[in-house]
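Task card 7
Instruction: Convert sequence to structure tokens.
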Amino acid sequence: MSPPAERHIGLGRGLGALIPQTSPAGAVPVEIPISRIKGNPYQPRQRVEQQALERLAASIAVHGVLQPVLVTEVLDGYQLVAGERRVRAAQIAGLEHVPAIVRQMAPRDQLAISIVENVQRADLNAMEEAHAYRQLADEFKLTQDEIATRVGKARPTIANILRLLDLEAVVQEALGGGHITEGHARALIGTTPAVQRQLVDAVISRGLSVRQTEELVRRLRERPTAISRFKAPVEGEMERLEEDLRRALGTKVVLARSRKGGRIVIEYYSDEEFSRLFDRLTGGNA
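Output:
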């Protein structure tokens, strides 16, 4: 059987520049034993969804590994650069070999390629991406411009992602765990650690949107002494007050703060319930 033709492996913009090309023949995939592949020490992804991995394994069991993994040679085998999910899924599917493209490359290029692959596949959350860029900066002494060039992103994008590392640990954990979005986290950048801890609890417990979070942060910045006004909802007092009113009135009640006060929304679902609520609120004196 003739060797397969060389083809672009599609791991994302900028990847071709990261992989040294020695000759056209060098890009031809070869079958290598999975047992000889060592894990990638520069793998930026910390979480792998097990269900997605099992779905990929089921597909590989039927169709095989359609896209070669990328490895570099080491003394006692190969070190994985890109394709961790494919290797793990192939193991689950019972395969002993996988197609691979073998390249020699510097450690910082291995990390950059791992970042590009995961980012292009949306496999990294924002905190994993931020830590990976910090590693490129600290361990390999790359500037933000150099990181941007290597991973195919604009320098301001790299700078903004790195700023997430300045957030309080509880905010970083909430973002990494998917409890808040990157937009929520960005809204908290520049606030004090105490405010970050309070507001991230409010965002999660009250289900605040990014826009609501930004508005709350803006109001606190305009009136720093007003933080005490928001302490109650942050600590759950508003929810407790809502629950007390629900029990007292026997219907759904929503409390919402605004810049100059707030509003109480009392819901009713029939004319009879409206009459009952009216009598309850007025003491029966119409």
